[in-house]
């Protein structure tokens, strides 16, 4: 799964995801893409599950680009632990996704196959997505 090799800080603030995406809003690599319509944290497991679903449906034909990277450590305290005693330990890595961001790009397959593959990938993600194509 995806995660950074090294980070400056071990734990991060939760933060809020405000506004719309300014970077990665247009297709740069592929002909077809999956665009986020909502703001949400997408975990490394969800990204990997979406990627696997796409590549399996495409029967490893064509090319897939993952345009997001989970760089935010999300910490969690164990169940049934009392309040206090500091912040929990990092459990997983996530990516803060804003609406308008391109999540995945696909090329080298027909539009019908790309549409179905990206639809299968969107089912693995916690946000509403939209299929887009280069004009």
Task: Give a topology summary.
Blueprint: E1 32-36, E2 40-43, H1 44-57, E3 63-66, E4 72-76, E5 89-97, E6 102-107, H2 111-123, E7 129-133
Antiparallel strand pairs: 1-6, 1-7, 2-5, 3-6, 4-5
Helix pairs in contact: 1-2
Overview of the molecule:
By secondary structure, this protein is α+β, with helices and mostly antiparallel strands. It has a single domain (32-133), classed as Alpha-Beta Complex (Aldehyde Oxidoreductase, domain 3), CATH 3.90.1170. It has 2 helices and 7 strands, in the order ββαββββαβ. The chain has helices at residues 44-57, 111-123, and strands spanning 32-36, 40-43, 63-66, 72-76, 89-97, 102-107, 129-133. The strands form 2 sheets. The chain has a 4-stranded antiparallel sheet, covered by helices on one side. It has a 3-stranded antiparallel sheet with strand order 2-5-4. It is elongated and about 55 Å long.
Summarize this structure briefly.
With 135 residues, the protein is an alpha+beta fold.
Average pLDDT rating: 97
Q: Name the strands of the widest sheet in spatial order.
A: 3-6-1-7
Q: Structural class per helix/strand content? A: alpha+beta
Record field, number of beta strands: 7
> So, CATH architecture?
Alpha-Beta Complex
* Main beta sheet: 4 strands, antiparallel
CATH superfamily, called what?
Ribosomal protein L16/L10
CATH class descriptor name: Alpha Beta
Using brief descriptors, characterize the structure shown:
135 residues, Aldehyde Oxidoreductase, domain 3, 2 helices
